[in-house]
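Cont'd.
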Amino acid sequence: MSDWQLFDTHCHLDVPAFDDDRDAVLARARAAGVVRLLNPAYDLASSRRAIALAEAHADLVAAVGIHPNDAAGFGESHLAELRALASAPSVVAIGEIGLDYHWQIVPREEQARAFVAQLGLARELDLPVIVHCREAYDDALELLRDHGRGLPGLVMHAFSGRMEHLRAALALGFYIGIGGPVTYPNAHALRAVVEAAPLDRIVIETDSPYLAPQPHRGRRNEPAYVATVAQKIAELRGRSASDIARITTDNGRRLFRLN
Ligand code: NI
């Protein structure tokens, strides 16, 4: 397993769930073959924490952005702060940003406003985008058709859309992020998506501390478990897990322009 080259493209290592043992979690990830990690943000404070963590660890990079569930009152001051934070050398993307109609903590129009404004910031700064989309694929893809052009790259993280959404995302040149849910017994639709998607458009992720794969489901997730995601995709695609690790890591490096 140690010859694997895994890239966990979405892990929230900055959150308090890792305060007691963050270094041990990182050590387990490296032992499992994780060579790269990307810590996205959900608000301004987590953007700052993500940057601080990335500055402390050479294999970690950061994204800055405001999540739809945290987008209440989003305005010019947030945009200015994000612009300043994004100038840190460890910041490789804007995210996670998007639409969340599952929790719908913030009114839809307000979510859309924050999403579109941050897409504009990404275009202005020439940074790829990490999209969070939950039960909002039709609206998110419509916004992205209008406002997602001219970006250097985009990933629909924790992809949970239907086959038609996959086709639309691929047509726009986007990547899809696949994580723990692909291992869940009832995830038939997601596994069909993984079987249909071109291998050069899939990146893998854990979304730690959330969405732990089987058999850890329901407990804290951690980046080492991204190996389980690679294994599951390998099984679905009839490839070796080390192949899937290498391919998805190359994809992530291309998407986020890392070497
Ligand atoms: Ni996330």
